[in-house]
């Protein structure tokens, strides 16, 4: 259902507009106002998905309505209606944020197309906002321990720069979360962050995955395909588990970092890319270098800034906050009220050996929420928390 407000002082034209729109789509919910002041009253009280607004009106003209509405509800698209002699003003309204304008008498097809486009665009904007909110909530980094505060401080400093970052730490400590945060707080956040789990891709496919390939480069290459470096152009490429990358792929990544150029597998044509690389690993790369399994020059290129995420056992102070955070998130996902963990239950969980893993803590909280009562007690933790 789309709510549309028609603002037009000429009753005959208003009636025609309402008739055209209601016949076009019976899910349009139509309201009307015969002057600008009435329109503003309605705009303050109700939410609309679109306003169709005449320019020349007594009391308050269409341009004033547009400007006043942009101040209180900037997201509502406006389609202006221009009569003879105010076409120039109509063109000008685009600068004040009007979506489009149509001329009087309104042409049926043009009107309906413009309305559909404006509504589609509005739906897209709302969806983007919703997704954006969801993303930033999902990647919230919880913790007030000095270890996490330090990491948050580094993220704040390094995110707006172009510096490459290497994130190390045991499994499930939040390395991916750190990478997402850096991307989201950077200028590049308008462009994608592309993730590649280097450990999950067979070594013979990693080069094609990262750099793409041309048709015929190998048996299964039936058509040209862009790789992740190209997909991340303008944004961030997150190379997770980089310690598992083959040496030949490492050599190519090094070249991409040095020259900002890549070439697809099977092609000798260079393609320029502008990508910020963030890498993560749970391996000790110094050891990997000593064993000849990781290129030292690549390490230095990648680890301009090093962020080491400590294991959960080293920041037990954060556990109560994390339990509360996960309980709330799980309740949101299930559409239920968050369960409360008793103080003793929290204390017990705080003392457990988490082998460094926040993911493990989240799973345990989820299990306790499913199996436990309204209030999770110490006994329930003893019963259900162990692996
Ligand atoms: N400080 C934190 N606040 C909130 N959630 C966290 C925090 N740290 C980790 N998590 C959550 O724990 C889970 C594991 O985190 P993440 O995937 O970032 O870890 P990782 O170190 O990249 O793991 P792996 O090494 O297995 O790839 C995710 O669901 C993440 O949202």
Automatic annotation (TrEMBL):
Record key words, sorted: ATP-binding, Nucleotide-binding, Phosphoprotein, Transcription, Transcription regulation, Two-component regulatory system
Pfam (any one): Response_reg
Annotated ranges, domain Sigma-54 factor interaction: 141-370
Domain called Response regulatory: residue spans: 3-119
Coiled coil: none
Record has Transport as a keyword: no
SMART domains found in the cross-reference section: AAA, REC
Record GO terms (molecular function): ATP binding
Name of this chain's protein: Putative two component sigma-54 specific transcriptional regulator
Naturally occurring in which organism (per UniProt): Galbibacter marinus
